[in-house]
Amino acid sequence: MMASSYNAKEEDRHQPGATGHVGSGTMTNKMPDNTAFKQQRLPAWQPILTAGTVLPAFFVIGLLFIPIGVGLFVTSNNIKEFEIDYTGVDMSSPCYSCSQSYSWNNTKSCTCSVPFSLDQPFESNVFMYYGLSNFYQNHRRYVKSRDDSQLNGDKTSLQSPSKECEPYRSSDKPIAPCGAIANSLFNDTLELYYIDPNGSRTAIPLVKKGIAWWTDKHVKFRNPSGNNNLTVVFQGTSKPVNWRKPVFELDPSDSDNNGFINEDFIVWMRTAALPTFRKLYRIIQKKPNNMTPTLPRGEYILEVTYNYPVRSFDGRKRMILSAISWMGGKNPFLGIAYITVGSVCFCLGLVLLSIHYRYGKRNSADISS
Amino acid sequence: MYIFTQRPGPSLIATVTTDVSCSNIHTHTPRPHCDWCAGEEYWVDSRTVYIGHKEPPPAAEAYIPQRYPDNRIVSSKYTLWNFIPKNLFEQFRRIANFYFLLIFLVQLIIDTPTSPVTSGLPLFFVITVTAIKQGYEDWLRHKADCSINECPVDMVQQGTVVRTQSSKLRVGDVVMVREDETFPCDLILLSSSRGDGTCYVTTTSLDGESSHKTYYAVPDTMAFKTEQEVDSLHATIECEQPQPDLYKFVGRINIYKEREDPIARPLGAENLLLRGATLKNTGHIYAVAIYTGMDTKMALNYQSKSQKRSAVEKSMNAFLIVYLCILISKAVINTVLKYAWQWSADRDEPWYNHRTEIDRERHVVIRAFTDFLAFMVLFNYIIPVSMYVTVEMQKFLGSYFIAWDKDMYDEELGVGAQVNTSDLNEELGQVEYVFTDKTGTLTENNMEFIECCVDGHVYIPHAICNGQILSAASSIDMIDSSPGGYRRHEDLFFRALCLCHTVQAKEEETVDSIKRGIHLGKPTSFYISSSPDEVALVEGMKRLGYTYLRLKDSHMEILNKDDEIERFELLHVLNFDSVRRRMSVIVKSSSGNTHSYKQHLIHIIMDRNSEIQMYTIKPRADTSIFPRVVSGKVEQVRARVEQNAVEGLRTLCVAYRSLSPAEYEEACHQLSDAKLALKDREQRLAQAYDLIERDFTLLGATAVEDRLQEKAADTIESLQKAGMKVWVLTGDKMETAAATCYASKLFRRSTQILELTKKRTEEQSLHDVLFDLSRTVLRQRSLSGLSVECQDYGLIIDGATLSAVLKPSPESSGSGNYREIFLEICRNCSAVLCCRMAPLQKAQIVKLIKASKEHPITLAIGDGANDVSMILEAHVGIGIMGKEGRQAARNSDYAIPKFKHLKKMLLVHGHFYYIRIAELVQYFFYKNVCFIFPQFLYQFFCGFSQQPLYDTAYLTLYNISFTSLPILLYSLIEKHISIEMLKRDPTLFEPIILFLDVAKNALLRWPVFLYWTCLGLFNACIFFFGAYFLFDNTTFTSNGQMFGNWTFGTLVFTVLVFTVTLKLALDTHHWTWINHFVIWGSLLFYVIFSLLWGGIIWPFLNYQRMYYVFMQMLSSGPAWLGIILLIAISLLPDVVKKVLCRTLWPTATERAQVGRTELCTDPYDMGLCIIMLKHEVMAADECHNNGPQDLVTVSLCIQIAIDKMQLCSLSVAYACLYHSPTATIGHSVYNVDIRKSLTHMTPYLGLISEDFSSMPVAIEVEHLPTEVG
């Protein structure tokens, strides 16, 4: 009795006394249970990685990966992609003057036209991206500088945005949408014209719906409720510093695409993973008659309303036209990687086979001699 | 004698007392007075107790009331109000906890990339769980304390018995204790209800000895029978301050009587009743409290043991330091790069990403420091809290498997293995040196009287059959035919054995102990003793006709051969001690016998008017008796003793001496003087004993057999085969010990014995002997490079030589010189026997080996109190729950019922736990490198802005839930190889190679660690750059929409979780349904969690960055393809490495694994060896299912296997059988030395000897490969 009370004291810091209970438990217990678990005799599958067992796996992987890789590679190669840099770094570039004369205070927007030609037609839907380089959308200070509850239509957050938005939280009035991300919304306007062989320009219809994630547009981003008139809703807030127009005028033509649920805005708000990134800008839909390609071969003009300064941080702006397959855009990496891994596995399989053969034989040779 | 001056004032003492009562036992020192008495050395040693708080008469010393702690036991650590601060303090004293707290605080204070929740939550969890556990345990202690402190006690006050609470007891109180009550504090016995002033006590709860011990009252007080009488006692007790030694006590009682000088009587351990012991067979006693509360010997003895740490823990700490360095360097590199990178303002603050004003105003140094801290926080997950938790859980839960093991359960004792410390589970698999006690550990300590030899005539009381004694005709003849002169000796001899012991006779029905009685046809009484030898002797005497009846009123009664009762007055007992190694009694024979022969004998003694003194050397007789003998047939007896010792029997010599009244008076005087002494009592007693114990007449010797424990030899052989060195450390004499060693196969017939004993060093100087031996051993080693068979050496060393070796040598050669040579010799010996060891020397040996330059892991196993020091000293201490009490078991880290269980403990459990925890530790570091290194790489792509790659939830839950359970489970139930393989009979296979695979912490050495870390780094690069190239400037989805940084992180994280889990799956060799459940379950959990986490707008979060990220990712085909690809690439190198290593340079473990599963499936292709292997494995399995796995069954199965192989040569089968682990992989059969293998087959020869002997040697050779080499 006394002794047991002292047993508890023989604990140590790591394993206080509790193991003592193990002991005292068995002391009073009869025979330990003869269960498979307690006796560590649970039936088990005991796989062992030997050359023999791994061989088939290697061949299977090799034989699976190489076709997949070839498929991916071919698909990727068939995807047409066109990219044009319109930053205007060169003197010769049509946007050079715009990029030089840029200042935030300009009220008049600068426009420039960049001509380009497509050697091959784009057959199906064409996705139009803008791309930025050297733009650190993944900088920590930048990434967290947003208020998700404000963007979700929360009224209190609208009036007092989260502290994370500093220093883009309020000017004299609270800013909506607050934060560095919203403040730096990409505001170039890109328009595409097809130059007919006869010299006339045809504007290519750009669809601006469906560029943001459905869930973002319908759930995550919401205008503050209560009034259909966004002007009223956003009363008492001010526009982000760098914006030319308030949030409720982002797309006055379409009330479903205005305010926080403007798709361009939503796309921008999804911060990119790497400093060189592209974002979906517009979709050029396939012609319904299906006879002519979406973008036929020929001359085009990209009309840029040049608002977005990137020269200060050595950035680049690009416009990308890309077709999309089932596996996304043009990306030879995946295909090449699959082919490589597949072949490596296959070769390893062969090596292992020879090893297995040699060492397996040696054993019986020893005995038979 | 002692000057008591300058005693502390009561007020000062009072403060000390309160301090004592609230401090915990660990810090309490029993010397509260030292501060005031630096110059008063005497005073520290003793205390004066006033019995009944009565002042001594004025003539004596001045009465100064003293204050001592009250009798409250405080074992709890916390009180209600100090629990939280104290517990938190205790917990944060651990480096790891403190580190995490620091990280957490940093996260709270500065703006860090991850929310404080990510590290705060796990830390809070760990701290809370630990606190609750400790709190609960403390509550239990409080409850136990309370029940003890409130236990009622009868106290004598003013002549009446008052019932009070135990905690109210004070020093000096007179207490009445009734039968079967436990003593409430340390008491001095005053009187007992038994007339002779004795009482019986069991100390089972203190030292585990279940025998009844007798305690004595001082003759002057033993007459008190009533409370009034006791109350009239006027006395003080002077005694030493409390010491933890249970068996030592020095004190003096001064009894004051009216108009008389005070009488002083000595008090010894035989007067002191210890708290915790129980009164037995005695109606009631009166006693006075001298040590109370935390001063009691029991309280002083239960101080916590020092913490043992396993080698794994040490390497874990080393790895942690490496990781801490990596962490810091990562943070520094990133900070430096950050400032280099953002040197230009456009990078630092581009127009789209301005700092806040406050931030901008900060000094750049502060900013840099904050950045450094932020990086630290970002990367801190590389040292996970969860590793500590998992390791502790693994150890804690893992130890249950040891306790649950039915193979380590002993039917007879009804106990299984017991785990006292779970911290050392893995250390069991690392043991290199096993130090074992002999008696009770290797042997059963179940003594049987074999023979006795009186003046060279041998008596053998024959075995008891069916409860009847069958006396051997021969011995009876010898007695009858012997001449009268020696008959006298014979009688003396038998009487001596009947008298010289401390055995108690017990009536059958009153016995409640586990000691077995002698089951004669008419069970009348039972013998109980703390020494099994004594019981064996007394029982042996009973069989020879002399029955010891009882000790009554200081008279020992013996029933002699003629059924007459002889009475001897017991005058003195010179107790056995380990220095003298003997015990004596002084008895006076009394008249009253009528038988002429007896009269004659007694007459002789009476003529001389003497006391007969019997003298035995106990329990082990050796040459030290002979110098003390003056007459008797020394030579014959010595020869017999030596012969018996060689046979492994425990021998004892008996001698006697008659004392004249004058001699007796002198002896008495010396004894009482020595007993009275307060100082140096031990020494003076020893001197007195020495004076009395001389000039003996040798009567004869006895031999008692201590049988080897079941399967002791098999166990030792297995341990040796597993590469452990087994040392036997015993107090026994050389011949007996060596015989046991041969019996237990520690030494074989082929072993060359090197002796390093006193006998040898007397002839030659120690120096020469040592050099001789080391030359022999080293020569062998230089030769062994060539020959396959190397000579084993066995070393025998005795205690005296050992101390000479260890003593720093005075010569110029340097103090450590002999020690080094000695260690060198030991290293080359397969077995070492150390005999004549004192308990402390056992510990010394262990310490010596521990400190030798390889720092081997040591294990000590023993069953008795004399092994405790060794058990505490060794890395792993194992106690046998044996007959010598539970003291060893209590002080050990693990306790097992029998020595044979050591085999499973070490070879199976230890091996498993080592493999498991090694994988656990390495895997934990690996998975966190995989986890954190991508974050590090990401910094290069996000402007060193500390942007985390993963979402907070992932950061928090990665180690807690996504990847924790599989590894925990792995570390609990992984079996890389079957139990049978590990335990299999060592003569069949050489498990040594299996154990060499893990010896010396092999799985946690730096190369292995480096491999894992590199694998982690490689995987991390694959995850990150794979995702990078997938994301690089392209679209991922078939609807053209783009993914952001969180998808990037989620992709990396998904690949990470799957890879890391599958890596573990690849390492798992033992897939039970639990493994399947946990591994696939945790992957499923990850997916479900991610779906949920991204599936809802969580109202309590202020960000919704993960909303639908996971689902969007899964909706994209390339993401799936990418994930599969990256997982495949990450796992590929490890698989290839495994396969190549296994095929080209297989370890023994891997060979065994293959043998178990693969090659057996196709035996004919692989040859004979595999057939044998298969059958052996089948045999092992079958034996397991059929019950105990013994040699016979296994070999029978093999016999069947051999019969089936009609075409094969037996000898080749044998060769392969022995060597099959090698042969299966086909390294060669060339190495097989057929002669060697046959010697290893010896256990089977008995069964198949016919076939074997009929097999001509020529056939053996014929079937060997012809071109050898």
N- to C-terminal distance of chain A: 72 Å
| Main sheet overview of chain A | 4 strands, antiparallel
Determine Rg of chain B (CA atoms, Å).
37 Å
Low-confidence stretches of chain B: 1-43, 463-484, 508-523, 591-623, 784-789, 985-992, 1156-1269
Mass-distribution shape of chain B? elongated
Reported for the largest beta sheet of chain B, the result is: 10 strands, mixed
- Tell me the β content of chain A: 15-25%
Strand portion of chain B: 15-25%
SSE class of chain B? alpha+beta
The structure class of chain A reads alpha+beta
The share of residues in helices of chain B is 40-55%
What quaternary form is this?
heterodimer
Proportion of helical residues of chain A: 25-40%
Structural notes for this entry:
The complex is a heterodimer of chains A (369) and B (1269). Chain A has 369 residues and is an alpha+beta fold. Chain A is built from twelve helices and eight strands. Chain A has a four-stranded antiparallel sheet. Chain A has a four-stranded antiparallel sheet with strand order 2-7-4-5, with no helix packed on it. The longest helix of chain A has 37 residues, at 332-368. Chain B is an alpha+beta fold and 1269 residues long. In chain B, strands 16, 17, 22, 23, 24, 25, 26, 27, 28 and 29 form a ten-stranded mixed sheet that branches. In chain B, helix 20 packs antiparallel against helix 21 and helix 33 (964-973) packs antiparallel against helix 38. The longest helix of chain B is centred in the C-terminal third of the chain and has 39 residues, at 901-939. Chains A and B meet through helix 1, helix 2, helix 3, strand 3 and helix 5 of A and helix 5, helix 13, strand 14, helix 36 and helix 37 of B.
